[in-house]
Each structure stands twice: as C-alpha cells, then as structure tokens.
Amino acid sequence: MRAGGVVAFPTETVYGLAANAFDPQAVRAVFAAKGRPADNPLIVHLASKNDIPLVTSGYDKKYDALIAAFMPGPLTLVMPRKSCIPDEVTAGLDTVGVRIPSSPVGSRFLAACKVPVAAPSANLSTHISPTTAEHVYEDMKGRIPLIIDGGECSVGIESTVLDITGETPVVLRPGAVTAEMIAGVLNVDVKAHSGKVIAAAPAPGMKYKHYAPACDCVVASDMSAALACYAERLAEGRSPMILCRSENVKKSGGARCIALGQDDAEVCRNMYAALHNAEKIADYIICEDLGDKGVAASVMNRVNKAAGGKRI
Ligand code: TXA
Ligand code: MG
After folding, report:
1. pLDDT tens for each residue of 29-53
2. What distance in Å separates the CA atoms of residue 70 and residue 47, rounded to the nearest whole number?
3. Measured between alpha carbons, how far is residue 126 from residues 17, 122, 155, 158, 270 in Å?
4. Residue 157 alpha carbon, nearest atom of ligand 1
5. From the alpha carbon of 36, which atom of ligand 1 is closest?
6. Residue 102: which of 183, 19, 10 has the closest Cα?
7. b/e per residue, 130-163, with b = 16+ CB within 10 A?
8. What is the separation of C-alpha 305 from the centre of its chain, rounded to a whole number of angstroms?
C-alpha cells in the first residue's frame, strides 16, 4: 500500500479496493481496476477517530455525537475536505467522505497502512458489491495483486452516507445506520433518503447503474406476485429464482427460492450473496419487496437498483 499498490480488504459492510488516499496515481489505479467513472468520489477510510483531522478542514462539533455513536461502524460522514486530499479521491468536490470500518481484519489492515485509505467497493463498476473474498476474486482476478480474506461481511450493504456540510444533515445513501437512528442521536431533523420525506441531493455515484446482476431482475410486490411471475418465466423456458424472507419459503410450493433470513439484519447480511448465487444458477431473479421500514428500506434501495426499477 505504501508503495502505491491496490489491495482488496474486508470491512463490516462490503469489501473495499484500497489505495493510499494521498497518492493520486494509486487512486487512479483503483478507478482503472473497477472501470469506474472518474466523477464518482471515493470514501476515505481511517483506522481511528484520531485520524479524522488528517482529512477534513473541520466540521460542526455537534456531529461528534454521531462519531461517538456510530464510528467505527457503517456510517460515512461527508465533511469539508482538507487540501491534502487529491482531486482524484473527491472527484474535485470540496467535500470528502470519511469512514472508520469496525471489522477486526479491516481495522488492522488500515492501522498497518499508516495512511488514510481511499476505497470504493471492490466490484467491477455496475456489478453487485462483494461480501466475500470469493466475490472480489470473481470480479478482480487478473486486475489486482492481492485480496485480504476476512470472511463474510457482517452488515452486508454499503455504509450510510450522511452529508453534514449543510444546515440539515442529509442521508445521501441509506444503510444500516438509518435516518431515524441519526435523528435519535442528534436530536435534530435529518433528511432521510426516502422520496416521500425529502428531496435529497443524491450522492454523485447514485445516478449510475448499480448492483446489476448478470441476468434480468425484478421486484415483486408480494409472494403471490413473485409466484405468478415465476410461473410465467418457467412457461417461457426460462430459469427463474425467487429471493424472499425465510418465512415465505413455505409459500413457494416448490418454486426455486433463496431464503434471505429471518430478520432485517440477516436479510441485509445475505442479500448480495443471494444475488451473486442467483445470477450463477438462474437467468431471472424475482425478489420479494421487503418493505419500506428501517434497514429493510436500505436493502430495497439496492435491490430496486439491481432490478433497474422494474416492479411487478
Ligand atoms: O460501506 C462502504 O461505504 C464501502 C466500504 C468499502 O467502505 N464503500 C463504498 O464505496 O460503498 P463506493 O465508492 O462504492 O460508494 C461511495 C459512495 C458513492 O455513491 C459516492 O458518490 C459517495 O459515496 N461519496 C463519496 N464521497 C462523497 C462526497 N464527498 N460527497 C458526496 N458523496 C460522496
Ligand atoms: Mg460501490
């Protein structure tokens, strides 16, 4: 890392593709390995809260409550950027996304790097994000020299991205730390990412196609819509697969299903692995709508993108 290399490493959310954040050439190598558009900024990862002043020119001290509550953890704060952070990292913005991962292997890696680490998710641009070292290998073999295997990611979707540079904190990307949890700690209004509550300025990256499986994917409003779609695809000679909450597998009547888990945390942890599995063994993915509350809403944010907004 210190010599300008690129390394894939585990975090509690998804695997990241790391480069020294102070080294523009190393950062460009990350964009090249992913095939990522240069106008989509990278998050800077730190080993410890003590390192935050290395990357930001300062922030409102009321947000220290968030840092105390959720960092290390699956929260990224968008803060004013310090000038030592190159344009390659921030895509020329005057802000920088800052995150402190909590996974043990990820934290030890970051501490050993001894520099802030710019890292996007370790997938090819537009593909499903990786939650195991095997997922990284499938996308990155031949493109990067090293993957650190820390096992399965415990959270399973990317961090919540919260912009704290304006009057009101704004969730640019929903994640396991929800707008409700943030508002609870800060005791101020938070603009959530959900359409009905707010008109959020989206994170630059959110406009791109994302999380796309290699096959068709659709969101079904409930299990009966999923089963009807399944039957139609079978009749066309296709090979569909339903992704649903574990409790709904018993309603499947023999249709091929991947059980996502019992509760929201488990569903969140398993979703990307389920999409990775399904794209290998099926040619049409039908995902049950998991609802619009809490972490399930954050998971659906990703699934709706995987489906390209298609609903039945
Ligand atoms: O959990 C995560 O955040 C993972 C792990 C590896 O830490 N990283 C990740 O990075 O998801 P990436 O590059 O796939 O997504 C970063 C998102 C993008 O939507 C990007 O536009 C947004 O964060 N972002 C980064 N810096 C920003 C900034 N200064 N202002 C607004 N959005 C920013
Ligand atoms: Mg990504």
Report:
1. 999 999 999 899 999 999 999 999 9
2. 14
3. 15, 11, 20, 14, 19
4. 1
5. 13
6. 10
7. bbbbebbbbbbeeebeebbebeebbbbbbbbbbb
8. 12
Q: In the structure, which protein residues have their CB atom closer than 6 angstroms to any atom of ligand 1?
A: 11, 13-14, 16, 40-43, 76, 78, 90, 93, 95-97, 99, 119-121, 158-159, 161, 172-173, 203-206
Nearest C-alpha neighbor of 39 from the set 106, 114, 100, 125: 125
Structure tokens at 184: 């609870």
Contact 243, 285 (CB under 8 A): yes
Q: What's residue 211's pLDDT?
A: 79
Q: Which ligand is nearest to the CA of 126?
A: 2
The rounded Å distance from CA 110 to ligand 2 centre is 19
What is the model's pTM? Answer: 0.81
- 119 contacts 18 by C-beta, under 8 angstroms: yes
Q: Which atom of ligand 1 is nearest to the CA of 123?
A: 14
CB contact at 8 A, 77 and 166: no
Q: 188-197 in b/e burial notation, b at 16+ Cβ within 10 A?
A: eebbbbbeee
Ligand 1 centroid distance, CA of 163 (Å): 11
Q: What φ, ψ does residue 285 adopt, rounded to 5°?
A: -105, 130
Using the structure block, give the residue that is written with the tokens 């803060």: 79
d(CA 117, CA 74): 16
Cross-strand bridge partners of residue 219: 287, 311
Whole-number pLDDT of residue 201: 37
Q: How close is the Cα of 202 to the center of ligand 1, in Å?
A: 11
Q: How many CA atoms lie within 13 A of 21 on its CB side?
A: 32
Query: What pLDDT, in 10s, does the model give residues 91-136?
Result: 999 999 999 999 999 999 999 999 999 999 999 999 999 999 999 9
